[in-house]
Design a protein that fits this description.
two-stranded antiparallel ribbon, single chain
Length: 475
């Protein structure tokens, strides 16, 4: 209820600010028109907010009092985001050491989905993590406050004198837009994003993504929270324990997770506004299924039938899910949704800075060489997951194609489509049908539709190694 009330007050303040800006603009426009018509010049201001949208609380001298109160709203928003991030970090540390249940992992996935989707609010607080529009919506205007200058030209005076020869003409004010300094524009852009809470929300979502990676990890010795000791089978994950006579071959225990991470489930796909974030979660899920399936050979692979990835590999497909098919679908969907690009450009930067960069001088001066930050935990998990992902791609033959191969395939497809159109038009002419000539030729290939290719895989590996050279040992 308090959050809804704050949102209502913030919307009302924004509406009042827009109304004031419109009133000032209309008054300035009327003054300018009256000056041109020969009336007195009553204002040298006006148009001061032309094309600009000031962040709340940036100028205490010109900001209305109703907007000044929003400074506290931003402070409360920052505090709430910090507390939420601390709670997410606690959950990460718990998943890093202890065993989570399938229901707990499923709830974490639902939380990531709800945070990224946001509410029905269009932008701002509660708007989730929409894809940023780099051209129109999510950038500040490039023009600053418009200065008022006095301009009188002989051509304008001559034209107006012909229309109204009896009226003496005065100087009149013309608003001249001025481009902002690039540094100023960049600072305003970052301030606006932080004012909406999107960077802090991305940090929280990234922490929860790393939590899911830890919860689905099958190579560590996790602690049983009931016995307060390591899992009885040692290294592995109780969600899908190493194969034994007592384990469940149907994998029904994974059903809550499979319902949310099945790439073939279109109902689940429609629930996500950011499928690239959803696709990142496919990677640890596929790695969890790794030792339980014999991987399928990709048509783009080398053509040889790969050997099982593990001596204990045993197909488990007698339950309500096909583990082998899900394993392959997860690897393919992560590339189709451009999840590797998200991991490289959004997930990795939001994890923070390594301790060697942020605390190196303090550690050296205090003689403590074991000081680490939470980034070191994050990057170790991400590096291990990426290294396993690379190993799976190479062993299964599911390496994606290169960017040039994708472009050539799309170009050939466009040529074939155009050839079919020409053939259809030819036969329509023979049958006496009306044909609309189209000389545009084959469609152009839209590179924005390109999925993650082989170059993107190596770009992710390079980014992880660059961010933490110590993690390169995992590769």
């Amino acid at each position: 209820a308090e959050e809804e009330e704050r949102r209502r007050r913030r919307s009302a303040a924004a509406a009042n600010a827009n109304a004031n800006a419109n009133a000032n603009a209309n008054a300035a426009w009327n003054n300018a028109n009256s000056n041109v018509a020969g009336g007195p010049s009553s204002s040298t201001g006006g148009f001061g907010g032309f094309g600009t949208s000031h962040p709340v609380g940036t100028d205490s001298t010109t900001t209305p009092s109703v907007e000044k109160n929003l400074d506290m709203e931003y402070a409360l928003l920052s505090f709430a985001g910090m507390q939420r991030h601390i709670a997410a970090e606690c959950l990460f540390y718990l998943a890093y050491h202890a065993q989570l249940t399938a229901e707990e992992v499923a709830s974490t996935i639902d939380l990531i989905r709800d945070l990224t989707n946001g509410s029905d609010v269009a932008g701002g607080v509660g708007g989730g993590l929409p894809r940023l529009d780099p051209l129109v919506e999510d950038v500040p205007p490039v023009y600053g406050e418009v200065p008022m200058m006095t301009a009188t030209t002989a051509s304008v005076q001559g034209f107006m004198s012909q229309q109204h020869p009896q009226q003496p003409w005065q100087t009149w004010n013309v608003p001249v837009p001025k481009l902002k300094d690039p540094k100023e524009w960049e600072e305003e852009w970052i301030a606006n994003l932080w004012g909406k809470g999107q960077p802090s929300l991305l940090q929280c979502v990234s922490t929860l993504i790393m939590t899911v990676m830890c919860a689905l990890d099958a190579r560590q010795v996790l602690m049983d929270r009931e016995t307060h000791g390591p899992n009885s089978f040692g290294a592995g994950n109780a969600l899908l324990p190493p194969h034994s006579d007592t384990s469940d071959p149907s994998m029904n225990g994974l059903q809550p997770i499979h319902t949310r991470l099945d790439p073939e489930n279109k109902d689940t796909e429609r629930q996500w506004k950011r499928c690239d974030i959803w696709g990142v979660l496919f990677l640890p899920y596929a790695l969890l299924l790794r030792n339980s399936v014999v991987p399928l050979t990709s048509p783009r692979g080398s053509g040889s039938v790969p050997s099982p990835l593990s001596p204990d590999a045993n197909p488990r497909t007698r339950g309500t899910m096909d583990a082998a098919k899900t394993f392959t679908d997860c690897l393919t969907a992560a590339s189709q949704y451009k999840s590797l690009t998200f991991a490289r450009l959004s997930l990795l930067p939001s994890l923070g800075l390594p301790s060697t960069r942020s605390h190196h001088k303090d550690v050296v001066s205090m003689g403590r060489g074991d000081d680490v930050s939470i980034f070191d935990f994050y990057i170790s998990v991400l590096a291990e997951c990426t290294a396993q992902f690379m190993d799976v791609l190479c062993a299964s033959g599911n390496l994606p194609i290169t960017q040039q191969m994708w472009f050539d395939e799309e170009n050939n497809t466009a040529q074939v489509e155009w050839k079919r159109v020409e053939e259809k038009n030819y036969y329509d002419v023979l049958w006496g049908k009306t044909v609309v000539e189209d000389a545009s030729g084959p469609r152009e290939v839209d590179i924005l539709d390109r999925p993650d290719c082989l170059e993107d895989v190596f770009a992710l590996v390079s980014s992880v190694c660059s961010a933490s050279p110590e993690s390169s040992k995992a590769f």
